[in-house]
Amino acid sequence: MRHDQRQPDDLRPITVERGFTRQSPGSVLIRAGRTTILCTASVDEDVPPWKKYEDPPTGWVTAEYNMLPGSTSPRKRRDRNKVDGRTTEIQRLIGRSLRAVVDFEALGARTITVDCDVLEADGGTRTLSITGGFIALVDAVTSIEDPGFDSRRVFTDSVAAISVGIVDSQILLDLDYSEDSIAQVDANIVMTGSGQFVELQGTAERGTFSDAELAAQLKMARAGIHQLTLLQQETLGDKWPLDTIREI
Amino acid sequence: MRHDQRQPDDLRPITVERGFTRQSPGSVLIRAGRTTILCTASVDEDVPPWKKYEDPPTGWVTAEYNMLPGSTSPRKRRDRNKVDGRTTEIQRLIGRSLRAVVDFEALGARTITVDCDVLEADGGTRTLSITGGFIALVDAVTSIEDPGFDSRRVFTDSVAAISVGIVDSQILLDLDYSEDSIAQVDANIVMTGSGQFVELQGTAERGTFSDAELAAQLKMARAGIHQLTLLQQETLGDKWPLDTIREI
Amino acid sequence: MRHDQRQPDDLRPITVERGFTRQSPGSVLIRAGRTTILCTASVDEDVPPWKKYEDPPTGWVTAEYNMLPGSTSPRKRRDRNKVDGRTTEIQRLIGRSLRAVVDFEALGARTITVDCDVLEADGGTRTLSITGGFIALVDAVTSIEDPGFDSRRVFTDSVAAISVGIVDSQILLDLDYSEDSIAQVDANIVMTGSGQFVELQGTAERGTFSDAELAAQLKMARAGIHQLTLLQQETLGDKWPLDTIREI
Amino acid sequence: MRHDQRQPDDLRPITVERGFTRQSPGSVLIRAGRTTILCTASVDEDVPPWKKYEDPPTGWVTAEYNMLPGSTSPRKRRDRNKVDGRTTEIQRLIGRSLRAVVDFEALGARTITVDCDVLEADGGTRTLSITGGFIALVDAVTSIEDPGFDSRRVFTDSVAAISVGIVDSQILLDLDYSEDSIAQVDANIVMTGSGQFVELQGTAERGTFSDAELAAQLKMARAGIHQLTLLQQETLGDKWPLDTIREI
Amino acid sequence: MRHDQRQPDDLRPITVERGFTRQSPGSVLIRAGRTTILCTASVDEDVPPWKKYEDPPTGWVTAEYNMLPGSTSPRKRRDRNKVDGRTTEIQRLIGRSLRAVVDFEALGARTITVDCDVLEADGGTRTLSITGGFIALVDAVTSIEDPGFDSRRVFTDSVAAISVGIVDSQILLDLDYSEDSIAQVDANIVMTGSGQFVELQGTAERGTFSDAELAAQLKMARAGIHQLTLLQQETLGDKWPLDTIREI
Amino acid sequence: MRHDQRQPDDLRPITVERGFTRQSPGSVLIRAGRTTILCTASVDEDVPPWKKYEDPPTGWVTAEYNMLPGSTSPRKRRDRNKVDGRTTEIQRLIGRSLRAVVDFEALGARTITVDCDVLEADGGTRTLSITGGFIALVDAVTSIEDPGFDSRRVFTDSVAAISVGIVDSQILLDLDYSEDSIAQVDANIVMTGSGQFVELQGTAERGTFSDAELAAQLKMARAGIHQLTLLQQETLGDKWPLDTIREI
């Protein structure tokens, strides 16, 4: 039993509120335990310079990640003069993960920026950003009003992410901060709703890990991602952009 | 009648949620119309270098202000390499305003940082930051557990702020963005609960203004601040740090 | 009697030297007591990007403010990696104040930059920058040689500024540094030659202030600004761009 | 057959020159095909601030990565005002990988910095930095002259790294730039000489990948790392800090 | 005859005003033709970190150089985010030149910073900064009130500087901007009052130069520096820190 | 006899390896004693903005200089947030020196960037960068394939550089770090193969120097540069872009 009464393969309680703010077409407040993230998605009818002259024109999806100062205790100093390495790494991961399920030609010559601002941090912020960011992205894409634009053609799959780790030789799903800080191995798995890997990052924070330990972690993550995909589908309701969700 | 059915001297509908996040001892989500701000207050048991050797030791209150990228449409670019002039000006105003009602000797040798992160911007973000920031500050101060520390001695008064402006020759309270962007005069008034000025900034954005116009604006602002003070008192309940609230 | 033998409503002795340097069309060395500022105004036959496509084309006036390292004792460290908040605030104020009396359509598609470099600082640098900057601006505008350009149509009014404060419960005009550093209230007033407010910033540095105290400060500032306007008119002689100066 | 006549599971020809420069105790020029990296390791008899008060005192290993402008065609602009995200990500990976095989208590209160400067880039720079950086690290550690310091106790294992990817549905080892730029999946595997994972990063650059594809990549990488470990052992000769090398 | 009626070996008319501002103990406004520089020298009773533990304690002299925006036409953009290469080069030269004539042990554990702010630039700003900076430095040193400090022991010599160049195959002294911009060779010579070289920088801006051309330039510079030394001596009057001035 | 058995006018043993890396058309590893520099030269078929509209179109040559962290002991911190003054000064010198022998019209509208990365520093890095940079520049220019481009017309002369200094009253050629750090005078001389000065920088690091001392240094430097020119000619073989080399 874990310190918060979860079983090893339990996700934390998770809630999603769409339309939390109204200036961005996608605005999702997602909470998992004591981790809270505001994911907003904005549409810009322009593309980066290196996409300007593509034929046919294609779009782009990018992400930014930031922790608010009050999201941690003690307070986190604001990144005002530079972006630290961890932040850069995370926002690149979020961007790559979201792009993996988008058809840029169907999106057309526009850029969607998904901002993941962590209001409260208790572990798992990068994976929750991907899971919530996908919902904000769908809301932003379906808000596009353009004759001839078909938002359902934009998504080739859904995407979600979860962490898994080894703590005291036991494999645990969805680590919170207190677990993460003592984990021997910490892995972040990004998968599509259809069960394919998008990204896989496993790090031995202390010592190393074996083939067998890797396999066990991947299996537990796969089950967690399936639950998250169901949650995304339920939350989005008729905005869900895919026909089916694969059974695992 | 204004575009949103308000009378000239009406505030926008305002809601406050205390304890919105849990990592910071003060965490207030304050919404006025479509302006939404998360004010968190953190306590650091240390003081700035220039306060280190004071006898008796005294504390400090400082503020930071930031607009999230998704708070505006089109998306606001993140300030990652520098802080723009407007941001600096606003966070200095918030800090000065909160410090005006704090007794630093009673606070003791600790620093409280009030972070005002704008989740949604529709005008009046700096004044709403002060009004909400005061509530977060009170929550942070009353969270301090230290024998011999008396949180009720820290506050000499309460503080709140409101904007007032001249639009089409008419004086209006609590301008939203659409009103602010066409105002001839824009003033921000910071007052204590007991009706004294803390700060007064009036700017003729187009043309100039007379003595009489100034007087009329100040009168309307004073009434608005009284309503905000009552709201602060009601929200804080038995955490309200002052004995009485003066009638105007 | 004040420490330098002034009455409460006395300005400091003030001198102005036009044409102090010769590379800029406007170059004014203005001294008030031991505060010395070099205001230069340069004309650029171009406009900011957001003005490029205006029809009819209109111009722009902007200001920069800087304190030289030797202007204070101890020496002020040079701002080489960033601009501090106070500097930003001041140069934004100077720019807004000068723009309040300029007709941008009459100016035409050009930008005038007014640089206020403080050579010696003893209080009141921001207000003296506005008073001197207006003179440099007039010199720069009248230097423009362009058939069809009428420099007299550019100015709708003149502008000057002064500080006023409360020290030991007494209201004082034009505070020097030693007075400013112990003032309970410090206000900067920017007015036109015709007696209208352009900007009004009052801050309670210690405690707060009442309606009556505000009124008394404004009255004293108004008289000071009238004297400064007369000085500007006398200094500029036949370059004075306005027909009359209003009695107060 | 690959464009450079390699079989899918062939490494590129690899050479190592120890002592390439003489100011750093570890200085290794490592070349794999047309990728050339200078790895230097410096010893500082000090530790980062957060290690100052540890008891018993322990050391630290950190890494920096940089591409020289002439390492690519067209020339790569020098990172002089900021470090780009990719650079940060890579140098964090190198540092974590080297630390995984070091016993910080045996190292004692000193910091070793491994600098990986890419002189010529043709793919695989991050993995070659780890493989070469380990050799430089060993040279630096064995150069420490301190009675009571036993360099053989510092290393718990060796570490090396290799890339593996899927190009045209075929799994390939040690991708060069031309292969990497068209890969569907790109994975970087860091393993110890004894065959344990240290880090595993798999990214679907285009599309996604399955469990089976992951397994095949890991198997090929494992064999490549074994070859690299043998090379490290042969290069270091009697400086090799471990007793045995495990058969796979 | 030159465009301003000078002979080839004529200096421009030069004036010096000591005590131009009053916050710094040394404050010199020096004008040569249309080049105007404010040199202020400040005393800090502290030394740089690398001098803290010297025994006997010794002092330091450093310099900063800056061009004001209004010093050139068109206006020079302010260096606010970085210092450009030319500025760095010049301020390092000024610092080295002044240090060449200072006895740091006699100065004692204090730092003097000489700020050279160019108010008006018409060529020769770096050499005029050295010539004027020496005067400000002497004023700052003689202002030090410390029993046991003997300001006359601080200076081992005086220092001044001048430019010399080749324009249209003719050697010219003290080039103004219009001459400098077409010079084939541009040299800056820093010498002591006793006729020794401190620094010598000759650059062929177009083509190259011979031994004979170098010798002719040095001879003309030497005569110019002698005149500048006499001017420094006359300006400083009884503050002149040296016993004699050598005839050349 | 010097500490490394050289005579006062001996150069250090020097070796040059062309084509050290293969991504840049010019790539030269040059070693003099324990100073090692990688000079790469890259061709960009574009010109800086201020050259865009020249008629006839002309090219540009620029240089960058950088010391790798492992080039010194103790390790040199990487310049990642700013370029220090010394670096800027050196790379400007290298650029000016190389440009002195290039005919920009013959080069045509292209930019060549010469990067000098110091792998190992033991004094004389700036002069060795010029000597080696010239070889890399020739290799880059002769690599240009463009009908109508004649690489032999690009060079008007060759260029090389050497340091000379006064140590213990003795004039020494090609100072290493141990000599440079105690030199009274340190001069860097840049000359063409035909014996003309390009640049001359002499600095009295301690005290000053006389006319006679200057003359003796220049004579010794001239002989050293002649040897370096012969080495450049031999190294480049039939790529040597000039017809003859002048006897001294």
Would you write up a description of this structure?
- Chains A, B, C, D, E, F: It comes from Maioricimonas rarisocia.
- 6 copies of one chain form a homohexamer.
- The first copy, chain A, is of the alpha+beta class and 248 residues long.
- Chain A has one domain: GHMP Kinase, N-terminal domain (Ribosomal Protein S5, domain 2, 2-Layer Sandwich).
- In chain A, the strands form 2 sheets. In chain A, strands 1-2-3-5-4 form a 5-stranded mixed β-sheet. A 4-stranded antiparallel β-sheet of chain A has the order 7-6-8-9.
- The first copy, chain A, is globular, with a radius of gyration of 18 Å.
- Chains in contact: A-B, A-D, B-C, C-E, D-F, E-F.
- Strand 9 of chain A pairs antiparallel with strand 9 of chain D.
Question: What's the helix and strand layout?
Answer:
Six copies of one chain form a homohexamer.
Chain A: E1 14-18, E2 26-32, E3 35-44, E4 60-67, H1 85-99, H2 104-107, E5 111-120, H3 125-142, E6 159-167, E7 170-173, H4 177-180, E8 185-192, E9 197-204, H5 211-236
Parallel strand pairs in A: 4-5
Antiparallel strand pairs in A: 1-2, 2-3, 3-5, 6-7, 6-8, 8-9
Helix pairs in contact in A: 1-3, 3-5
